[in-house]
Amino acid sequence: MKCVMCKNGDLKEGTTTVTLEQDGTIIVFKNVPALVSDQCDESYTDRDVTRRLLQIVREEAQKGPKEAFVQYVA
Hints:
Shape: elongated
Number of strands: 4
CATH class: Alpha Beta
CATH topology: Ubiquitin-like (UB roll)
Order of helices and strands: EEEHE
Number of domains: 1
Radius of gyration: 14 Å
Number of helices: 1
Strand content: 35-45%
Helix content: 10-25%
């Protein structure tokens, strides 16, 4: 599969860092499984991973504003 950003890169399994912000809460997720372009390093997470990341940031935002670095765990 080709990267939609650079149009040249092949997507390979790897990991990425994802930063999400909601209601004053900022979470940086490290080692998130993703398909990563071997040309431009653009990354794509699948639907299940994306849903999990959004669920975590919503839950944390309900607790109040904060900043956190989190290792992704499926």
